[in-house]
Structure formats: structure tokens, C-alpha cells
Amino acid sequence: MSGILLVEDEEAIKRKLMNNVPWRDYGFDPVLGASNGEEALSLLEQHPIQIVVTDIQMPVMNGIELIKEIKKRNYRMKIIVISGFAEFEYARESINLAVSEYLLKPFATRRLLEVALRLKAELGEEQAKEEELAALRAQISNNMSVLREKFLTDLLNGKVGKADFAAKLQFLGLDQHENRPFQVVVLELHDSSDELVPEEDKYLLDLQFYQYLERELANSAYQFLLLNYYHRQMVAVIFDPDRDLPLCLEEWLNRLRVHLNKDITIGVSNCYQTLLDLFVAHREAGMALQNRFLYGLNRVYAVGDLHLAHPDYHKIFYQLYQNRIFDDLRVGANDEILEDLTKLFTELRSSCLGPEPIRIIAANLLLLTCATLNELGYNLEELFEEGVPPLNMISRTQSLDELEAEFKKIFARINHLISRSRESLNQQRVDEIRRYLETNYAAEITLSAMAEKYKLSPGYLSLLFTERTGKNFSDYLTECRIRKAKELLKHTEMRIYEIATAVGYNDPYYFSSCFKKLTNQTPSEYRENLVKK
User: Fold this and answer.
1) Is 442-448+464-532 in CATH node 3.40.50.11750?
2) Which of 152, 285, 349, 407 is a Cys-bridge partner for 267, taking CB atoms 3.0 to 4.6 Å apart?
3) For residue range 407-427, what is the model confidence (pLDDT) as tens digits?
4) What is the dotted CATH code of the domain comprising 145-307?
């Protein structure tokens, strides 16, 4: 219900306004009257009023003064001003006060009712919008930790621009951390039995890892941000690091190992100041972490310990993480990989780096390649003895040419492994799709939907399906549907249009056309010939 207040100093007009319309029948309650602005304000303090109808010329407090007081008190309501022609200047002032409607005397009470109903509807719409916005604000507030984590993940991946950076920091409550020195610490948990563990147990171990590390950080003197960035990998941003941090990291590492009974390795970045540099710091910590392949697990590796002084070293080393070779490796583009290797070694030759920095770059290339293969789910034991990358090969080579040749041999083996695995996987995918079509022929099935389901491009899936079955996707699906239609024509009394729907055709005429194209008969002719036999 919406309360309405009618303010008029002439008693007869006020009674007419109050009684000539069955206000309560139209959803207005309470219906109140006042003779001047002061009486009206007193009633507004006591009753829930949404619409005020007020005259302008009144004793004690006129309508303009009343409207100003209502605005001053921030009452949420609609105001209708009624006035005679002679009060035009007052009317103009009321318009300046942003009243909702202005009615010129004389007017029919029916007209007042129409205006009041319209304003009542507007109030309802405004309230609904406010409730919707309040719900959205509550949702944002409830999900603030998720939004904060998403933003930090974007920062780690270098996906946040400078334009709205400060505004986002403030909105997410992270501005207190800006322009403070920090280091990024990446902690990785190693579990050789991971493939045998149920999925739920993997998540439970991740949660244990996160919660225990969070307790360790909370009990320290450092302020921090913590992310479960990747499966088995935590990223901690430690603010205001001091000379005691390395010792603390060693202690946390040892306690985590005992608590979780797992191997753990830590990589630490250099020190940075703005959170926009989280991307660089995270890459550095990841690079330091790669040393686990060289020197073993359960250690803390700092990127600052590498002592890499050559100016070109940093350029090549950082670009290594963005090298196209890893993208090409993910899609199995063998020819492109060989081109990428050639370009990389050409750059190494022109850099005039010494043997040791080149060996470090080569070791990281090999380690990043192994990490990419692990990410793609390939078994390194099928590539290397005991699944260990041949880092000793790098130290044995006597020239860049020899080193380049060794890498090309390694990538040739990788390509063979990927091709063999992809061959098996592709056959498995096509077999699964065929089984799906033969079972779900009645559903709305498209090549695009199946491509999305199996994370392939529609063009590649079409080519793959035709190559493996000898038929294109659309023809194979049609054959499945017509084969089932034949069974229904033979063994049921269903009507033709019912059979069409049952096998996936919304249009019975199109069904008949497809049926005849494959059988040289219409569905009706096919059924008649069955009867004759």
C-alpha cells in the first residue's frame, strides 16, 4: 500500500480531494489531509507517505516552503503541486524544486487519480530497481574475496592495464599494499602418486597446503597476500621483506614438509615496489623454482642467487618464458618448433654470451619444455631415462652447433611421442562421438557443439571425423537417424510425423526428403513395401 497526503487550506476542496476518490480501493493507505505545511510535516513524521498532493498558497507554511522542507529532510516521495493560474511564479519555483507533477486548477479528481496512480507505479519500479541494486551490491560484497583473487591472478599473468589500476586497487581494498616493497614466493608441492589419488583427495591436499601456509604467514611478522594459484602451487606476496625472510622461508618449508609429509620447493623473486610488477616478480620466482630440476627438491631457490651480469642474458632469459616454442609445442606444430629453435640459437650466437650463461639458458629451455609436457599430461619417462631431462647433455656439448643439434633431436622425440599420443587420442575421440551420435540421435546435435565438447575447432573435428569414418559428420548423423527411423517404421504403428520427431527432425517434410535421399523411397513407401513382403 502507498500512503497519500492531501494538503489544502480550503476545507471544502480538501474534503472533495479526500472523498471524491475511493483511494483505498486503488491501493492508497493511509489517506490523510492537512490544512498547511506545518500540519503536513507533523503527519509525515508519523505516517508512511509516498505521495504528497499540496496547494501552493496556504497560511502558516505554504506549499513551496513545505516542498523545500521535504527535500531538506530527504523524504523519499512523489510530490504533486496544485495551483491556480495566478500563482504561475510559484509554480515555476516548484518546477525548479523537481516536483513530480503540476496540476492547474480547476481539475477533475479523476485526473488527480490518474497522476497519483502513475506516480505510484513509478515508485514501485524505483523500489524494485533499488532492491535489485542492493542485491547486486550484497553479491559483490559477499564475493569480494573471489573478485580480489581474480584480480591478483590477472596481475600475476600481466593482464591488468595501468588505466584503471588505482581504481581497482581501491575498490578491492588492496590500495594499502601499493607502493610497498614486496617479494613473490612460489611454493610447489610434489607428489609422485598424484595420478593414483582420487580427485577429492587432491582438492583436500590443496586445501591443507593453503590453510597451513596461511597460518604460518599469519603467525609471522609479515603482511601478505596468498593465492592457491595452480594445482599444488601457492603464490605468496610478502610485503616489507627483511633479511630474516630467507630464514623464515626455510623454517616454513621444513614445517610444511613435516605437516604434509610431502616434498616442497620454494622459489623467490627479487624485490619490487608496485603491484603492477607482480607479473615480473612471479616469473622470476617461477624461474628460481625451476632449479629444483638441477639441484633437487626441498630447497629455497632465489632468483637473485643466479648472479647474471651480462646485459643480453636478462633479455634472452626473460623472453624465454614468452617464446613461441611452448605455444607451438602445445598444438604439436613440429615444423614451427624447429623454426623457433633456429631463431633462438641464432640470437644466442649474436649475443656473444659466455658458455656458462648459455648453458643456464639451455637448461631452462629444457626444464620449461618438460614443465609444458607435464602440463599437457605427457609421461616424461617415455622421453627420457627415468623421466629425468638430460641436463648433463648440456654440459657435455662443446659448441652451440652441437647444443642446437641435441635440442633438435630431443624435440624430434617429443614430436614422435605427441604424434603417437594424439593419434590414439583422436581415434578415441571419434569413437566416443560415434557412440554419442548413435545413442543421442534424437537430440539437437551440431558439429560446433561437439567440437566445443571435445575442445577442438569445428573445422579440425570435421576433417578428423571424415578421415576416421570415411563420412562427414552431417551424413553420419543422418544415417544414424534414418537407420532408427527404419526400425520404428518396421516395428511400431507410429505416424510418420511422430517418427520424424523421435529421430531428431522437427520438420516431417525434411525428414521424408532425407529418408528418400538415402533409401530411394519415402517413409510411407518403405512401410508399404514392408507390409507386402
Assistant:
1) no
2) 285
3) 888 888 888 777 776 666 677
4) 3.30.70.270
